[in-house]
Write a structure and sequence with these properties.
Elements: E1 2-4, E2 39-45, E3 48-53, E4 64-66, H1 70-76, E5 77-80, E6 87-88, E7 93-94, E8 127-137, H2 142-151, H3 163-173, H4 181-196, E9 212-215, E10 224-227, H5 235-244, H6 246-251, E11 264-266, H7 268-276, H8 280-285, E12 299-305, E13 314-315, E14 322-323, H9 326-346, H10 351-369, H11 378-381, H12 389-393, H13 399-405, E15 412-419, E16 427-431, H14 432-437, E17 439-443, H15 449-458, E18 466-470, E19 476-478, H16 488-503, E20 510-514, E21 520-524, E22 534-542, E23 547-549, H17 554-557, E24 565-569, H18 574-580, H19 616-624, E25 630-631, H20 633-641, E26 664-665, H21 666-674, E27 686-689, E28 705-709, E29 712-715, H22 720-723, H23 731-735, H24 759-784, H25 795-802, H26 813-860, H27 866-873, H28 879-886, E30 890-891, E31 893-894, E32 897-898, E33 923-924, H29 934-969, E34 973-974, E35 980-981, E36 987-989, E37 1004-1009, E38 1016-1021, H30 1025-1035, H31 1046-1057, H32 1060-1063, H33 1070-1093
Parallel strand pairs: 5-8, 15-23, 16-22
Antiparallel strand pairs: 1-4, 2-3, 6-7, 8-12, 9-10, 10-11, 13-14, 15-24, 16-23, 17-20, 18-19, 18-20, 21-22, 21-24, 25-26, 27-28, 28-29, 30-33, 31-32, 34-35, 35-36, 37-38
Helix pairs in contact: 2-4, 9-10, 15-16, 24-26, 25-26, 26-28, 31-33
Length: 1101
């Protein structure tokens, strides 16, 4: 494959009278890289020559990919490679005309290229070529070669189409308006299908018979055959074949019987001649542009030898030898086999020897291109597969994913992460050592010249300092460190130089200063599966060696603190800083909404908050908002001082209890966090049901109904549903765009005494286990006595199993055997059904036992118990975890079943054979507090191992699936007309998501019935009407206005909806209008029902 630069101006772009006129020239490997000042001669016409200089690099307008023909390979090449030798001995220098000839470039940093006389750092190498004695197939184009052969006549090389069809298809392909890629591809498929149906050539001077062209299956190399004589070919075709096989038929009389099975061999040489005779119009019909590549270019005549720098030799420490690259070794073998083919042709060897050498040459070239070619010979498969050209391009470590898409960059850092709840969610703690290494080039201005003078004086040793500075005239000064040397004298000299340099700083100079507090950095954790995997933070320089951030931001990164590492990047230009800057107006005037944490708190998947309070934050909020939590004035003021910045004004509200001592509640503290003072205009109004809600709304006995009225918490305990992620009905979803995340105010701990069971709980556990084991023994006894009641679904098998042979009249032994076999199968099925019924019964029984024990443990623990608090508020754990810690771990399952027998009819040697007792089948009666026995621990590890393997497998599968999905969708974007298009401007969707709504802006979900089905679908709703109505009615009282009746409300709503503003809504907005009408109608109906219940008039108030 080749790339050609843009064709501008006078060049026609063909190989006729004029040549390629390339005005925009870029990197050219054949002549040593960028323009080096040499004169370049370009042929523009017959007898005309244009000479110009190529001092400066040129801009590439576009790149055209095409196929290299044999002549172009020779033009790109410096010389023909024909020598198999790599080195001349004993000097051990590169052999001339070999694969390591210095004219192809060098791999040693000190050697000089003999073509351009440059070192390795400036020379990318040059190409050579191997002239093959016989052409071979290109394994990368083999499938396309087969398709083209199926579409052309194997005699005259014309496309197998009628003249009318040729004209029709050419007219469509040459349409001035052009054809899209999809339309052109569909047309090509249609042409290929029509050609494959043709059995003879339609050209008036040919009319040859054409059969199926197919690949030889089971062949160790690339072979094609033409099934020309299959079926009933014309008599003249069989006569020609009989005449050709006359001599062979005389030697073997069986040959004439099998002439109909004969196939015509299509060697690479014959295919090359067929493709060379194809016209440009026929090539165009088969989707090939003659200006880019002709069909004969699919066959390899000259093999391009890549430059030495991309296949370097690795020198060995001992002996002075070297290890050669796989490509170099394979090129040696190709040269050797090619020489054997040449010798066989020159010496007139027999056909068999020539064909064997030719096949081997085909195999070597195919392996050179693709080292993992299927169908390799057995001796070659036993060796290590080589890294061919395809292997160097594809895969995770290939050129595309390893070097182009996944680049390694400078100005980045990586270290372990750790939590710090005292940092804001938009901050990241950066170690001071990292801050001294990662620098930002800041330009000196009249606003920062004093600051930059101080950092230059500090140098690279003291933070904040600088590592280097540069003048406007590109003079660079490196600031050296004060380590080692001559001690005091050297220190004085360096300090004097820094002092002088700082005084000489001028506006326009650039100082590479250390990272400092407030710098914008990009923070990333791999794998990057969604856009929130990389966000911008503000740096906070701190001691120690780890990155630290608020644990509320763990969810978007999917991070934990068990040894995870994260990456940090420091943008190097003001444009990059502005693009990545956070949205806080204290830092930037025009906030960016691309990568800042405050604008990525909501996931674009469904609009739910992703960055929210978690774990100790939730626990603290839950404890503070308990009914019996009170603070005196001193404590309340201390709590209030933790909430915001030191400069923020806080108005202490009136105390909830006046006498005998003034006391403030925890709910007042949480209200103060939302609205610290009256000057703050944040008014939050919403109602929500918490996890511990028991009914009766405001009078909930467990205080589980949360109500905020004008930013004051009236009732309810704040927990996960209100403050956590994944909820659109909570406080935090409202505060995301208003105020920001909450911060911890109190500590919280858990100890061994919190999971120590009391006497009452131990007695309850013993009673439950005794009753459960007794019932399990009864079920096992019923099974052993064949009296086990079958579960639903086993009735038909049971009826069939009752049938016996004696109930049926047996007339023949064949019928007897059939009935006996049927009865035996039914009895086996009855046994399977009984076992399944028993296992289902025991699983339900043992699961209920653990659930009952967990419920008892929750009731037995006091409300101040730490695990219970965490489970109830949703910060961590569940009642199941408490049950396993205090009561019993429960039944362990593998593959959804109890532990199966692995030894001789038993799970472990510790149990009896065929034992179905719960302990023998994986039931763990002990808790983590009491400790597990040896057998219980073994069963517990079996269940844990299954979960571990399942997690690892699912992670790999979902990650690969997500990558493929994103690679397929990454070029889609919404254009100016709201259509979704790809990079070729093909329309994928006329409206994004069929409704044009942004999922991250949906405030609520609405259940819509699926048409023609009984199921419902959750559809995003842009406005939460109930929440909006609560906010409006709470903040706008309008006490002086008259109350409207339901009838008057309905009339007013209909009048407003019939107004000019709603009539101008586009058809796409009609759904929103209908939703608004329905909500207002439901509101009026509810108000009418309320007034009727109170026996108030509904017509007039």
């Amino acid at each position: 494959m080749a790339t050609r630069n843009a064709n501008h101006g006078g060049g026609a772009g063909n190989k006729g009278g004029g040549g390629w006129v390339q005005q925009d020239v870029a990197w050219a490997p054949g002549n040593g890289g960028w323009g080096d000042g040499e004169e370049e001669e370009v042929r523009v016409g017959a007898g005309q020559t244009l000479v110009h200089e190529t001092h400066a690099p040129k801009r590439i307008s576009h790149i055209q990919f095409g196929l290299l023909d044999a002549e172009e390979v020779e033009r790109m090449s410096e010389f023909q490679v024909w020598s198999r030798e790599l080195f001349k001995m004993p000097e051990r220098i590169a052999a001339p005309n070999g694969c390591l000839d210095p004219r192809l470039g060098v791999s040693d940093k000190t050697a000089v290229c003999e073509t351009c006389s440059k070192l390795l750092v400036d020379c990318a190498g040059h190409y050579g070529h191997i002239k093959l004695e016989l052409p071979v197939f290109h394994i990368g184009y083999f499938k396309h070669t087969l398709t083209m052969l199926q579409c052309i006549c194997k005699t005259c090389s014309r496309v197998l189409l009628h003249d009318a069809s040729r004209v029709k298809y050419l007219k469509r392909m040459r349409n001035p308006r052009g054809m899209g890629a999809l339309e052109r591809g569909n047309l090509h498929k249609k042409i290929v299908t029509e050609c494959k149906k043709s059995t003879s050539c339609f050209h008036e001077s040919c009319y040859a018979v054409n059969g199926t062209v197919k690949k030889v299956t089971g062949s160790q190399t690339l072979k094609l055959v033409h099934d020309r004589y299959k079926g009933k070919p014309p008599g003249n075709v069989l006569q020609e074949l009989t005449a050709d096989m006359k001599v062979a038929a005389q030697a073997n009389r069986e040959i004439p019987k099998h002439l109909g099975m004969a196939m015509e061999d299509l060697s690479a040489l014959r295919v090359l001649h067929l493709f060379q005779r194809m016209t440009d119009e026929d090539a165009e019909l088969l989707w090939m542009d003659a200006r880019v590549g002709r069909p004969e270019n699919l066959i390899i005549e000259n093999l391009l030898v890549p430059p030495v720098p991309i296949r370097p030799s690795v020198a060995m420490d001992l002996g002075g030898g070297s290890n050669e690259d796989d490509l170099t070794v394979k090129l040696q073998e190709i040269i050797d086999v090619n020489a054997s083919v040449k010798a066989a042709l020159d010496n007139g060897a027999n056909v068999k020897m020539i064909m064997e050498n030719w096949d081997f040459l085909q195999l070597e070239v195919a392996q050179y291109i693709n080292g993992e070619m299927p169908g390799l010979p057995r001796p070659i498969l036993t060796t290590k597969p080589i890294r061919g050209l395809c292997q160097r391009l594809k895969g995770k470590s290939g050129r595309f994913r390893g070097n182009l898409s996944g680049k390694r960059v400078d100005f980045s850092a990586r270290t372990v992460i750790s939590p710090d709840p005292n940092l804001r969610v938009d901050q990241v703690g950066v170690p001071e050592r990292v801050a001294k290494i990662m620098t930002f080039p800041e330009m000196v201005s009249r606003y920062n010249i004093e600051k930059l003078r101080k950092v230059v004086k500090n140098g690279p040793d003291v933070h904040p300092g600088a590592n280097q500075a540069s003048r406007k005239n590109y003079v660079l000064f490196f600031l050296v460190r004060l380590d080692g040397g001559d001690g005091f004298v050297k220190k004085l000299f360096i300090e004097h130089v820094r002092e002088q340099l700082s005084e000489e700083l001028k506006i326009g100079d650039i100082v590479e200063r250390h990272m400092e507090d407030g710098d914008v950095v990009l923070f990333n954790r791999q794998p990057s599966l969604h856009k929130m995997s990389i966000m911008s933070h503000r740096a906070k320089i701190m001691p120690w060696r780890t990155f630290r951030f608020n644990e509320c931001v763990c969810s978007p990164y999917n991070a934990d603190f068990d040894g995870d590492e994260m990456n940090m990047h420091l943008p190097q230009t003001e444009e990059a800083r502005a693009e990545a800057a956070q949205a806080s107006r204290r830092y930037v005037a025009s906030p960016s909404r691309l990568m800042a944490v405050p604008y990525n708190l909501v996931t674009p998947r469904n609009g739910e908050p992703l960055v929210a309070a978690t774990q100790d934050f939730l626990t603290a909020a839950y404890l503070i908002t308990q009914r019996d939590i009170f603070f005196d004035f001193e404590t309340f003021c201390r709590v209030a001082s933790y909430m915001g910045d030191a400069g923020e004004q806080v108005d202490v509200p009136p105390p909830a209890i006046m006498k005998p001592v003034a006391l403030w509640t925890g709910k007042q503290a949480m209200s103060l966090m939302v609205r610290p003072s009256k000057e703050n205009k944040i008014l939050v109004n919403f109602e929500s049901k918490e996890k511990n809600y028991k009914g009766n709304r405001f009078l909930c006995p467990s205080d589980g109904y949360v109500c905020y009225h004008n930013s004051e918490l009236m009732c309810g305990n704040l927990a996960k549903k209100t403050l956590g992620d994944g909820s659109k009905t909570g406080l935090f979803y409202t505060l995301i765009r208003e105020h920001g995340p909450l911060e911890a105010a109190r500590g919280f701990s858990i100890g061994i005494e919190d999971v120590t069971p009391g006497a009452e709980l131990s007695a309850l556990k013993h009673e439950l286990l005794t009753d459960g084991y007794t019932e399990a023994d009864e079920q096992i006894r019923l099974f052993n006595n064949n009296r086990m009641p079958l579960k639903p679904g086993c009735d038909a098998i049971q009826m069939a199993a009752v049938m016996t042979v004696t109930e049926v009249t047996v007339k023949e032994s064949r019928t007897n055997r059939f009935l006996f076999s049927t009865t035996t199968r039914c009895l086996f099925k009855l046994s399977d059904a009984s076992i399944k019924s028993l296992e289902s019964e025991l699983n339900g029984l043992l699961g209920k036992l653990r659930e009952t024990a967990g419920t008892g443990a929750m009731k037995a623990l006091p409300w101040v118990n730490s695990p219970r608090i965490m489970a109830e508020c949703g910060s961590k754990g569940s009642p199941l975890n408490i049950s396993q810690m205090i009561a019993c771990v429960g039944q362990q399952s593998v593959g959804g079943k109890r532990i199966q027998n692995g030894f001789v009819n038993r799970t472990l040697p510790h149990f009896e054979a065929n034992s179905l007792f719960p302990a023998a089948k994986g039931f763990v009666a002990n808790s983590f507090y009491s400790g597990l026995t040896a057998t219980e621990f073994f069963f517990h590890t079996m269940g844990g191992r299954e979960g571990l393997v399942d997690t690892a497998v699912k992670t790999a599968e979902t990650g690969y699936m997500a990558r493929r999905l994103m690679k397929a969708l990454e070029d889609l974007s919404m254009q100016y007309d709201r259509t979704v298009r790809n990079s070729e401007q093909t329309i994928i969707q006329f409206v994004y998501g069929d409704d044009g709504l942004n999922p991250s802006c949906m405030e609520a979900n609405m259940r819509v019935k699926i048409r023609g089905a009984d199921d419902f679908l959750d559809v995003g709703q842009p406005v939460d009407y109930a929440k909006l109505m609560t906010q409006v009615t709470s903040t706008n009282l309008f006490l002086h206005e008259k109350t409207l009746s339901p009838k008057e409300l309905r009339q007013l709503c209909n009048k407003v909806l019939a107004g000019k503003e709603f009539q101008q809504i586009l058809p796409q907005g009609q759904r929103w209008t209908e939703e608004l009408k329905q909500y207002l109608e439901d509101l009026v109906t509810t108000r009418k029902g309320l007034r009727e219940g109170l026996r108030l008039p509904t017509e007039v108030c």
